[in-house]
Amino acid sequence: MSPSDLLDLITLQNLVELDDGGHTLLEEMLEIFRDDTPRRLQDIVTAAAKGDAEELSRAAHALKGGAGALGAKTLRYLAADLEALGRDGSAEAGPDLEARLQTCFQASLEALEAYLAALKQKPDEA
User: Fold this and answer.
1) Domain spanning 3-118: CATH superfamily
2) Of 86, 91, 94, 107, whose CB count within 10 A is highest?
3) In this predicted model, which residue has the larger pLDDT, 3 or 78?
């Protein structure tokens, strides 16, 4: 998948604009995403394994918010699907749930890190 498939570039640009063209805000948000998301993924996997649809919906909602705020659109879509599944009373997310979540998270993280690295390489525009 290409970065444009994984990321919402408009959201990322808006974060840069909020930071007056800098990258500190994005950097801080990426650090939080990197640190918090593995726990959120585990919460989803645990809820699905227990068959707890309500908890699955809650955990997926939290992931959806974090991913969406940072522009990780593919991960956000996956979380939204899981949230809807749980809201509909099901926790049957498939046997490959953990692998799908991990793969999507890692690809999103790599794309976000590459976006930030490219942003840091750009000369400051005065």
Assistant:
1) HPT domain (1.20.120.160)
2) 86
3) 78
